[in-house]
Amino acid sequence: MSIAAAKVLIITQNWGIEETEMTRPLRELREAGAAVTLAALTADPVETVQHDRFEGETVTPDTTYDAVSADDYDLLVVPGGTTNVDRLRVNPAAIALAKDFAAAGKPIAAICHGPWLLVNAGLLPGKTLTSCRYIAADIENAGGSHVDEQVHVDDANGWRLITSRKPDDLDAFIGAIKETLGE
């Protein structure tokens, strides 16, 4: 596959997403030629934050995540933001999407608090990943192995997991996504 033929799905809630963890993959993957869909809980604007507390950019989603199917995409991106993922990880439609991507052998990329969704989806046994330090114990309690690295790629269990710790690691995170998509 080439990145120009890739279809990427980014899922978020409508508030509390760490701004650069959503906007940089969204824009940089589009600029590289991928068809990127931003799917939120509702069709209302997505309000991002900076450092979980300062107002960030507002972006209009393309659709809602209960209206999409893993069958139509090549890769799932889960941005962080404490409030974003704390709500995303208990949403049945978001959990189902993560499970469907993994079951189909399709890659999932999650940054910062993003792996929380994978904890609740039960997808971490046998996987090694990185994240922000605040959820390391959650990852290990869910059967995953946590490492402190800028970016970590794990191909265990028949599907690729790309993870990163924080906004400072976005260059490596987006680079790993692009490499996975065939840039």
Topology diagram in text:
Blueprint: E1 7-12, E2 15-18, H1 19-31, E3 35-40, E4 46-50, E5 54-59, E6 63-64, E7 75-78, H2 82-88, H3 92-103, E8 108-111, H4 115-120, E9 128-129, H5 136-141, E10 145-146, E11 151-154, E12 161-164, H6 170-181
Distance between the termini: 9 Å
Sheet with the most strands: spatial strand order: 6-3-1-7-8-12-11
Low-pLDDT runs of 5+ residues are: none
Structural class: alpha/beta
Relative strand content: 25-35%
Q: What is the percent of helical residues?
A: 25-40%
Describe this structure in words.
By secondary structure, the protein is α/β, with parallel strands linked by helices. Helices cover about 30% and strands about 25% of the residues. It has helices at about 20-30, 80-90, 90-105, 115-120, 135-140, 170-180; strands at about 5-10, 15-20, 35-40, 45-50, 55-60, 65, 75-80, 110, 130, 145, 150-155, 160-165. The protein is globular and about 35 Å long. The N and C termini lie close together (about 10 Å).
Short description:
The protein has 183 residues and is of the alpha/beta class.
Give a quick set of tags describing it.
12 strands, three-stranded mixed beta sheet, alpha/beta, 183 residues, seven-stranded mixed beta sheet, globular
